[in-house]
Amino acid sequence: MNKISPKTLQDLEFNTVLLQLAARCTTELGKEQVVGLQPLSDKTDLLNVLGQTSEYLASYSNDNRIPGHNFDAIDPELKLLKIENTTLEVGGFKKIGSICTTVATHIKFFIKFKEYYPLLYVVSDGITLNTEIPRNIEAVIDKFGEIKDNASNDLQNIRSQMVVVKGKINQSFASALNTYQASELLDEIRESVVDNRRVLAVKSMYRKKVRGAVMGTSKTGSIVYIEPEATLRYSRELGNLEFEEREEIQKILNDLTNRIRPFAPELYAYQDFLVHLDITASKAKYALEMDALLPEISESRELYLRDAYHPLLFLSNKYKKEKTYPQTIALHPENRIIVISGPNAGGKSITLKTIGLLQIMLQSGLLIPVHERSKVCLFDNVLTDIGDNQSIENHLSTYSYRLKNMNYFLRKCNDKTLFLIDEFGTGSDPELGGALAETFLEVFYDRGAYGVITTHYANLKLLANELPHVTNANMLFDGKSLEPTYQLVLGQAGSSFTFEVAQKNGIPYSLINKAKKKIERGKVRFDATIAKLQKERSKMEKTGSRLQEEESKARTEAQKLEDLNSKIKSKLENYQELYDHNQRMIYLGNKVNTAAEKYFQDKKKRNLVSELIRIVETENSKRKKQTVKEVKAIKERKAKVEQEVIKKVEVIREKKKVEKKKAEVKEKNKPRPVFKVGDRVRLIDGKAVGSIDSLEKNKAIVNYGIFTTNVAVDQLELVERKM
Fold first, then answer.
1. Which residues contact 344 (CB under 8 A, 6 or more apart)?
2. What percent of the chain has pLDDT over 90?
3. Which long-range contacts (CB under 8 A, 24 or more apart) does 588-596 make?
4. Cα 723 to chain center, whole Å?
5. Pairing with 69, which of 142, 217, 445, 501 sits 20 to 30 Å away (CA)?
6. Residue 2: alpha-carbon gap to chain centroid
7. Residues in contact with 369: Cβ distance below 8 Å, sequence separation at least 6, in sequence order
8. Is the pTM of this model over 0.85?
9. Enclosing H/E stretch for 523
10. Hey, which bits of 195-232 come out as E strands?
11. Closest CA to 373 of 309, 314, 304
12. Which residues contact 684 (CB under 8 A, 6 or more apart)?
């Protein structure tokens, strides 16, 4: 594949796609590199990149999600490692250690799940995991980014001495603080810290009474900060130790840098690997947002884009919650060139850009928003002439610029080219420009190129009908409303609806009639015929679509009825079997019960046994001989039916429970009567009526005549109020 020109990328707004990809990168290096993405020239590399993106996209929908790959760039550190006698800072080592950990995590992950991510595993397999780098760093620097005490023996000794000296400073300072506090020479705050040293907060009037070094004063001048003389000697000693500590740390970092320096190539590879993952992840996120996928890559010269969306338009409309109309288009050896016609604002240009942008995206390693049954082929070159191409810098008119562009097309066009031309032939006299455009189209056709053009010229529509491997197409327009449907229809040229649209926009009919007379009658008739055909086609498609819908609905309903009928029939048979079985069990139970009663009366075991044997033999004679398999099947069927019955009974029980609860709630919410002594009452759901003898709190003693009982008031209902 040849390098695709920057003009083509600009015409198709590929740079906007790259900026959207950059916004989805998590690292600065990823953002910087992804905007320089170009179509790949090697087919093997392209298929690998597409496969890796597809694998990363799949990780969003399975349980083995790829770990996070975020990192801080180590470019400054890598530059320093190239220069002898340079030293890295602690922060630089932290970044290097973090990158090593992230790379190790990913390598282990891809080894574990290489069956899920074979292509990404191959990329990670090319990275040599070096354990010395993180081990050396971890031996010196802790997880908080501090140099460890045991990084060297000298550092450990220095820090031990510092601890002792700090203890002496605190001890001597505490003594001075107590002394001067007792003498009431200190301010209320007593002490403060200046230049990382503890100081006494001395009232300015007593400054000469406190021995030590003046470290500063307060803003108002009322307080003088003095480091007491007793701590000065220890502070100087601590300062010397701190200097020695810095020197030792620098020495340790020098040594660590020299140990890491030989591994600079591995660190370059680590960073490149993580940047590659970041770019791949951004492509996968982009694909996820617009339901993009990897279509079949065809070895033959066949391009079939089914339900293809323009990515930028799709995402823009998605955020606005507006509908985007997909297009379906096919280019193959028998139909290499498509001539799209029809009125403006019908979607011709966006269809052209959709085809071109999807092709460029795919050849740059991005997944595209098409149906999974789509099929694509790869082109060596994609040539475009889209939009208003005036060149102010070169003082070229639109037509001159387009002619210059056509000259470039003629030099580059061959059987491995996809060309896309918007408003082919415009910018000059319609007759002359149309004739020249016709000639160009014939040349592209003879060279075996694939392409899509949009035009209003009738001669190009006629040529498309004459050439065997060229097809007319139009963007469907609603004949009644004169509104676009954004639907591409192959096989028929489109009308520009010039006069119809003019009439709809309020242009007087007399002027439209006058305009019609100024052009050839044949042209008007030709355009009118096309318009009429489009209207008829639109009607037919609507009718066909409605009939298909109704037929599909009827088929679905018929299938539902058939399924329902089968289910009912099957259940009836099962219920009948269960009923017959239960009736037989009842019959046998009655027989056994009769035998048992007889035995109970005469106590004759022999008669009982013989009767039971007779019952069993009679029952066995009625049964058919069944195989083990048949018996098992009958048992399973029976169990299934019983299960269904149990389920239905459970449903009924649950329903009754709910109804009971509702009734209880209703009863609870029902206004309770206030009982008085002498009222005639009965228990709720009871029949016996008694009278209340006495009431105490929520209890009542009810007299039933022959006995009395103590009952909760909420369990009673009023039968008759005492008058």
1. 496
2. 39
3. 588/615, 588/619, 591/615
4. 77
5. 142
6. 34
7. 290, 291, 292, 293, 308, 309, 311, 314, 358
8. no
9. helix 521-602
10. 197-203, 212-217, 223-228
11. 304
12. 667, 715, 716, 717
Look at residue 309 and tell me whether its pLDDT is greater than 70: yes
Instruction: Please choose, from the candidates 209, 217, 204, the residue with its C-alpha nearest in 3D space to the C-alpha of residue 176.
Output: 209
Buried b (16+ CB within 10 A) or exposed e, 468-477: eebbbbbbbb
AA letter at 58? A
Share the mean pLDDT of the chain.
83
- pLDDT of 709 above 90: no
Please give the structure tokens belonging to residue 511. 């002027």
Nearest-angstrom CA–CA distance, 40 and 4: 9
DSSP structure class, residue 149: G
The values of phi and psi at residue 127, to 5°, are -95, 130
For the chain, domains (ranges, CATH) are: 6-149+259-291 (1.10.1420.10), 152-253 (1.10.1420), 303-518 (3.40.50.300), 680-720 (2.30.30)
Question: What's the length of the chain?
Answer: 723
For 51, residues 6+ apart whose C-beta sits below 8 A from its C-beta are: 119, 294
Dihedral over Cα of 133, 137, 138, 144: its sign: negative
- Burial, 284: exposed, middle or buried (Cβ in 10 Å; 0-12, 13-18, 19+)? buried
